[in-house]
Amino acid sequence: MLLHVLFLSAFAFASSVLAAFGFTQSGSDYVVDAGSSNALVFTVNGKSCDITSLKFRGTELQDAQGSHLSSGLGSATVKAESVKGSANYVKVTCTTSTLTHYMVVKEGEANIYLATYIKEEPSVGELRFIARLKSAELPDEYPYGTVSTTAGSSSTVEGSDVFVVNGQTRSKFYSSTRFIDKDAQCVYGGTDQKHVCVFAPHPESSSGGPFFRDIESNNVGDATNLYWYMNSNHVQTEAYRTNVLHGPYILAFTRSGVSKISDFDTSFFSELSVTGYVPTSDRGYVSGTASGVDSKFQTVVHWFNDAAQYWAIASGGKFTSPAMKPGTYTQILYQGEYKVATATGVSVTKGKTTTKDIASTEAKRTSIWKIGDYDGQPTGFLNADKFLRMHPSDSRMTAWKPVTFTVGTSKDADFPMALFQTVNNPVTIKFNLDSDPGETTLRIATTLSFNAGRPQAKINSFQGAAPASPTKIDSRGVTRGAYRGHGEVYDVTIPKGTLKAGENTLTITSISGGSGDTFLNPNFIFDAVELFH
What's the whole-number average pLDDT of the chain? Predict the structure, then answer.
């Protein structure tokens, strides 16, 4: 489509009265009017790219600090222009030596569409957009409520990001959602229930895969902050992607109710000359059959390379990917979040659909007993229903202490989701056998290690070897509501004659050469424990 791009000068918009749709220049700043029925007018600093004013239905929502990338770009070359395509748009472009950031308004919509092209990772080590909003107008958070509201805290539990409010632990980290589940993340308030929400329908340039999660919102008292974390070192398991476009993502304003991610169509970005944007017409797909995953688990297929990541949930064993950028990908099959198969060299071509079936490679075995399920999560274990939204020290948690678990009598909910070296170490498992089963394998599947914590097993008189330290993730984990790391699985071969008829005792101990205070001492999170042959 031939576009008519109008570069509008300050002279052309000398009037202080805003048009129904468009932008004016006030000094070096740009004032953009969305021309929406629920009026949205915002101001962009022409020197820093900060949003310094956000007026929705006549009410100022912007806090004194600006809304911006990272903690602000400091300085940038900022340009505003009108673009005529299938609709009318205002496009604001902010350029630095390492990135180009876009803010786009479509006539009649109370939305700011954003996209960020980066040549290199910001020096602060994370890439985020943060809307810093007035807490007096927007005090409430959605979808998780007060778990991340730290206003009014009476003490600090950990670092400078976990606090106590009214006897409950709170943190911005407790507002997170898995990428694969992500929809609206909002703050709201006021007598007419104004909502400001972030939607990220295209996390293809982020890092961490379908199960990565990060901060979404945080009422700190002075302001209510709303985030889109494109990448961070918060339990980072994958290298950052650069020379890519992050987005489009959306900052949406509604009078009442919460929109859904499916309500937004960002395909019009193909009309806007945005660096790094790849339209659907220049993409391809992968489809196929995923097999070998127990039907009680979600079947997830994941594709990634250095430039992009995608995923799909199989239905009836069939899957089709989202529209993918051309390239060669690794394809992963998950049982829940537990990796069960890998295929390499999956080629995606513009305008075509590649067929690539994938089947679980989990070996068949005879299970003697199993605690938990292989789903890549601590599902069903003690405190697993709470840790995403509170600190392990919270009084609402069941007490952390060494546990003796009896196979056949105890329930999974009695088994600890995490083993902290100086808190609830060790866990003891007792089980009865009719006879010596011969050589067996003990499998301890974990989801995340902190401070080199890993399991060492002792079965009756047999001492299993101390496993090597897991790959280091330089980030706090369970205390921030995180559980997804590299998913180390430890197999211990138990020699014939070790097990016996009658009662047997297995002890699993968290070991490490490191140390720490209470819940920051070495630990790991359980996925499942199984004895089989």
Answer: 95
Locus of tokens 């590299």: 486
Integer-rounded Cα Rg, in Å, for the chain is 26
Q: Tell how far CA 96 is from the center of its chain.
A: 27
Cβ–Cβ < 8 Å for 352, 282 = no
Are 301 and 358 a contacting pair, CB within 8 Å? Answer: yes
Instruction: Concatenate the DSSP letters of all residues of 438-457 into one string.
Output: -SEEEEEEEEEEETT-EEEE
How many CB atoms within 10 Å of residue 18?
A: 16
What are the tens digits of pLDDT across the range 383-410?
999 999 999 999 999 999 999 999 999 9
CA distance 414 to 403: 8
Predicted TM-score (pTM) of the model is 0.93
Q: CB count, 10 Å around CB of 97? A: 8
pLDDT score of 10: 35
Of 338, 326, 315, nearest in space to 286 by CA: 326
Q: Where are any strands of DSSP class E within 357-498?
A: 358-359, 367-372, 403-406, 418-420, 427-433, 440-450, 454-459, 462-463, 489-494
Q: What average pLDDT does this structure show over 266-287?
A: 98
Please state, in angstroms and rounded to a whole number, the distance separating the CA atoms of residues 525 and 523.
7
- Which CA distances in Å does 385 have to 240, 343, 377, 381, 424? 31, 33, 11, 8, 18
- Cα of first residue to Cα of last residue in the chain, in angstroms, is 64
Q: Token digits for 256?
A: 């009442």
Amino acid present at 512: S
